[in-house]
Design brief:
single chain, about 160 residues, alpha+beta, 4 helices, about 30% helix, Acyl_CoA_acyltransferase, transferase
């Protein structure tokens, strides 16, 4: 009997699993780019540097991963320390509502604290009510300060 999802920090031996879960996420959100090869190469590259972690979750130790979370770290002059971006969190459709998302958010918070991060943030689509509810249950708030509702502005450079 399992005590809940098993979570671990991915290493180079988990690269294919991480890439496949991120490809499934890409497909889930209706995109066809980056290519599968680009995901595999990107995961390999990120697993070699210290500024990124991938967390994986499975029903129990030894079982295949059904969820992934990507964390990126950088120093912020505005925080006078390291901040963390929870870049991606994806749970396979068959595993949803099984506690994997909550377990990964808790693990992400713990990992950011281990890395002495002073701040953690993420973005999600404004229509993704289940994700917003999940993140709010774990203390995330919309905006960076009291009453603030930040917006994200972006521009492709390629």
């Amino acid at each position: 009997m399992s005590d809940g999802p098993h979570v671990w920090r991915a290493d180079v031996h988990d690269a294919d699993v991480v890439a496949q879960l991120l490809i499934a996420f890409r497909d889930h959100i209706g995109r066809d780019w980056p290519s599968d090869n680009a995901f595999h190469a990107g995961v390999d590259r990120l697993l070699e540097i210290r500024d990124c972690d991938f967390l994986l979750a499975a029903p129990s130790a030894g079982e295949p991963a059904v969820a992934v979370c990507q964390l990126r770290y950088s120093f912020s002059v505005w925080r006078a320390g390291t901040e963390c971006v929870l870049e991606d969190l994806y749970v396979t459709p068959d595993a949803r509502r099984g506690g994997y998302g909550a377990t990964l958010v808790q693990a992400a918070l713990a990992r950011a604290r281990e890395r002495d991060c002073r701040w953690i943030e993420l973005d999600t689509h404004e229509d993704n009510a289940p994700a917003i509810a999940l993140y709010e249950r774990h203390g995330f708030r919309i905006g960076r300060g009291p009453g603030a509702r930040d917006i994200v502005l972006a521009q492709p450079l390629d």
